[in-house]
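Chapter review: from sequence to fold.
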Amino acid sequence: MELNFYKRRRGKRGYFFSLDALFALIIILGVVLVIRPSSTQITHDMALQEDLVGVLSTLKVGEIDSGYVRGLISSGEITNLDNTLLEQIGEFYANSNSEAADMANNLLGSLDLDLSVGLYFNNQEIARDSSIPMASAESVWTSRQIISGIGNGANGSSSGFSSRAFLFSENNANYFYFGGYVGDGNITVYLGEGVSSVKGEAVFSGNFNVSVNGNSPTEYSPSLNEPFPFTLNSGFVTGKNYLSFTSSGNLYVAGGFLKIFYIDSSPLESETKYSLPGIEGFINLYDSFFVPGSLSSLEVFLNYTSAYEVFLSIGNTLVYTGNGSNEEVTLDNSTLYTALGGYSWMDGATIPFRLGLENVSYLLNASLDADVFSVTDLSGSMQLREFCSESGLFCGSQWTCENWCGGVWLTEDKIGLAKEANKVFIDAVIDGGDENRVGLIGYSTSFISSAFHSLSRDNASLKAEVDSWVTGGSTCICCGINEGVDRLLSESDAGKFRSLVVMTDGEANVECARQGNTPDLNGNGVADDAGDDAIQAACDAYNNYGIRIYAVAFGTGADTDTTEGMASCGMGEAHTGTVENLIAIYEDIAEEIINAAYYEQTVVGEGFSTYLYPSSYISIDYEKTIPYGMIITAESEEFGADGVGEFEFPSNAIPYGARVVSYSGSKWTSMVDVNSGTGWQNVFDLEDYGIEFTELGDPYVVNLPLSMLALGNNSVNVSLGLKPNNLTLGSQYDKVIFSVVKNISSFSPIVASSGGCIWTIEFEDDTNETMSFPSDYTGVDVCSYTSSSIVYNNNHATDYAIYNLLLSLDLNSNGKIETKFTEDDLTINSIEVEGIPFVWETEAQVRVWR
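The token string follows.
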């Protein structure tokens, strides 16, 4: 192959050299150097790669008499004849063009060297001509050259490209928030016009169906007491849209929200209207609304049907009572201003409100009677044990332990502590309610009939039974649970709060035939063992009869995997106790049971036929400033077990709002605090509205004032309660929903080419859309921005700009875009930049080895 190089020399006429001749000259120089001492051989090898770098970095593609290169020029692959060979290979490489490797291999393959040689960019092999692998080489020599700006030819410039991506779509998503408690019965939500999809989550009281605009319903089976997520993508119309939640039982929602996506965008508006959910069955609503600024007017419209008295209270003020058939009531601004004593106390505040029925026969947040059996492990491992703190052959008595072994004589009285803990528990439960009862069940190899006491309020009799307990035998936990279930079914009724407190100090080692063949529920790798039966017995107790299971693992030998599985499936709590804190644990469990009995059934109402229609609303007007731009709303991660949530306002956006959603169950969202880096500050305290929480609304959403938040990280803490000074940790499922205002556009840096791509984009409603950018792109390159894959070419200006835009729209960095848009909403401007090398730099290496 004749590959000629044309070399200029100080403006004189050039000379033509073949590649073979040029490298022959390099090799001859090396041979001349061979007559020097052997140490100069290294100099020869080092010069070889340096000379090759020099040739590749100075010789231009337009000066090469090569059929291969001429073919690249005539096909349009090479457009700048002033590029050096190294620059041209680098340009191909920067544009992910396979010609980078082909051209480099073509050059190296023409050298016919005895040594191996390779070309590398940023340590990535581009091409090599070798007889042996570099990993097997005795010596390797490297020469380096930095390539940057691709285009160092006669005019010192090249063409680069920069693109701008601009999103014209405005605010096409909105939220509907359920209250802290909505029920009981069928529930309807008005979504608005032109809905495209809905993504939601809520805590439902049981199985439910969802119907879009009266179409065929979809049935769901949620986990109890946990937010259940769902997505709806069909059945919506351009006109008015409704969602209906129905159930065969008295359905209620204990907090939740819907994120509604619309077909058309709308200008940025502040919230002024709170639509109320429709309720068919039993009107019972605990909720709140937020006044972002200085309230100037307030209006309430209620549309209902009820033979019973309907009441509405705002804050702690009763503003309406009445009844009627298809009653339409408007409480105008003047009426409400007078009733509420003005509005100044509402400015910038989260206001609880309560809508319900008066003077009817139902239980409203009333205490249920608690019936509970304490199920106690009386196996042999629970007996009194005396031992030495030191081990040894002669340490078995107190005297030898202390005098010969240097130890301390210890006493571990598990059964004694268990008896004391049960006595404390008996007093606490019975004193916690006028009709609360406690029963006792002892178990070892099986249920121990002599260690049993039926449900009773007789403290003395119960404690006498506890004192009679003796230890011995194996550990059949499922026996104790099954006996407790049977006794509750025979001695109690479903109208009471029924539970078992199950304690063990070891591992279950006796199975129960009642549970049948059980899977590996405790995760020990063995199916259908005694531990699996214990968990299954707890599941059966709750799933079949609503009996709660509280579990205590006592001592270092207890199987916590089994007790935690029992409590989880039995919808109770799991506790781990030591010799020192068992009594305190039983005190805590007693309090948990009393509290659970207090709020477990928020409403018990049968045979009611009342209706609140979804046309009802609360409307507010206030002084507001609406910034220019697009609202982007995102959700933080769930708070987790520690009850503290984190969210971050990005520095390149204007904070617009933030609110914490609180899954309080049947308790009340009592207090909310925030910390923006300067310490904790209180932003909401339900006690400000009254100390009788049963008379107040329960906010599912509490606003976080922007004045107390900061750009960057912010922390939030929620507390729940039944009354003031009786607060507990908020739900682990709480989260912050926050929004910012952004002017949505992005630029790419100056890169090699304009580009274009077929994009797959995932949105927060879990849908994926495929779009081409620019819209007239006809190529085959594919890009993606999804939760599972982000792929784009950062050497293509259009792709780079689209990626930057999507990144700015993804506030919570989960690979999903909060704001939904189409191809028509997004415009791409691509600009060719002449005379400026595009920003690309790499280290080129020529390596020689033998």
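Two observations follow directly from the output. The first strand starts at residue 4 and ends at 9. The two ends are 25 Å apart (CA to CA).
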